[in-house]
Amino acid sequence: MPSLRMLRARLTRLGSMRLLTAIAPIIAAALFMTLAATSAGTAQSSVRPPESAISATGSPTGGAVPGDALGTTSDAEIWRAVRQGVSGNVSIPDKKAAVLVQSEGESWRLLRNGPLFDYLGLAMIGTLILLALFFAIRGRIRVEHGLSGVKIKRFSTIERTGHWLMALSFIILAISGLNVSFGRSVIIPLIGKEAFGPISEFLKLSHNYVAFAFMLGLAIAFVTWIAHNLPSRHDLVWLAHAGGLFSEGVHPPAKKFNAGQKIIFWLVMLGGLSLAVSGWALLFPFEHSFFGDTFTGLASIGLDIPALLGLPQPPYSPILEQQFNTVWHVVMAVFMICVIFGHIYIGSIGMEGAFGAVGSGKVDLNWAREHHSLWVDELREKDAMPPAAANPEPAE
Ligand code: HEM
């Protein structure tokens, strides 16, 4: 009689045997299929037609149509045309699919993943270094006559809403956009692919949606500030003194916005519009021909941009339009990011008393006198000064 332990051991062996019998064919089949797939690949690359079939041209068919049965064009000619981007015929709605190889795509990829991103990265790092140097040399620009303690209203709630809507959405768009451009090379080595995937998905979606908040902020800022940003003769004086940025005790007169702020305003409006238009074309791809249309329009006034840049002449295929859009979008984005680095610097650590304008909406009277003396005069003429600030004591 077998003991209980022997019985259990036999049953366990039997169980293992059954498991082994069940998985063995699956593993064997998988191995067989892997081997078959591998050898098929090897066979494809190693099979060589018999020597007798290879003509003097080196081609198995001597450049002729195999069997003379499929038309009058040789394989080599067909594949050369495909490589050169010749469009074939497709019966599906996506007509872009008729082009199998688009050579400009390779040039675009090489430009984008090579010099373009190198220079854009350097531009941002260079701007930060320049600002740090400027801060080290010039230090914080102080209110020369000290803070008076008297506050005057500078920006209304609607003005600050436009500013912050634009500013916060710009920061989110900059971070999420730069993640598309530089994430693979900069972020993956730091946090790994597992974490990068979901973060990027979230950032990519936020880029799509936050874009609309940015456009709204841009529109509000345009409407509320355009009247104060038209050029005036005082701007020339301000520019001639570089706004006193490089020399202490120099305060050229300015209205509500000085020439430097006007330059930032127009850069943000035009740069923001350009980002919105190119971004729109990326959001709804293959539906626009902004580049082709713009180049054609400029050519009609004698400006042949494609010829100047060594580009093909319009009209462009939808895919080439997209490639132009991505390059333009990222170049404009980095240009604007560098401009905004400077703006954030001067509005925060770079200049004492400036932040209150967009923070609380109020600024110190002495700050206003030093940087916007003509605006202070205007407020006084309009009786728009608080009683404590009514005393017209000059700042200098
Ligand atoms: C205003 C409306 C905007 C729209 C509709 C928009 C839309 C888009 C879209 C759809 C993409 C393509 C993302 C992808 O490859 O999947 C993109 C990329 C990008 N966006 Fe924007 N964007 C806007 C504004 C901005 C702003 C303000 C900035 C910068 C501050 C910015 C920076 C970028 C960057 C750096 C990329 C990556 C480009 C690349 O590497 O090819 N975008 N944008």
Automatic annotation (TrEMBL):
A GO term, aspect molecular function: electron transfer activity
Keyword Transport found: yes
Region Disordered, annotated ranges: 45-67
Transmembrane segments: 116-137, 164-187, 207-227, 263-283, 326-346
Keywords assigned by UniProt, alphabetized: Cell membrane, Electron transport, Heme, Iron, Membrane, Metal-binding, Transmembrane, Transmembrane helix, Transport
GO biological process terms, semicolon-separated: anaerobic respiration; formate oxidation; respiratory electron transport chain
GO cellular component: formate dehydrogenase complex; plasma membrane
Cofactor section: heme
Record has Transmembrane helix as a keyword: yes
Location (main, coarse): membrane
Record domain Cytochrome b561 bacterial/Ni-hydrogenase: where: 154-347
One Pfam assignment: Ni_hydr_CYTB
Signal peptide range: none
Compartmental location: Cell membrane
Membrane-related topology note: Multi-pass membrane protein
Homology family: Belongs to the formate dehydrogenase gamma subunit family.
Protein name per its UniProtKB record: Cytochrome b561 bacterial/Ni-hydrogenase domain-containing protein
Species of provenance: marine sediment metagenome
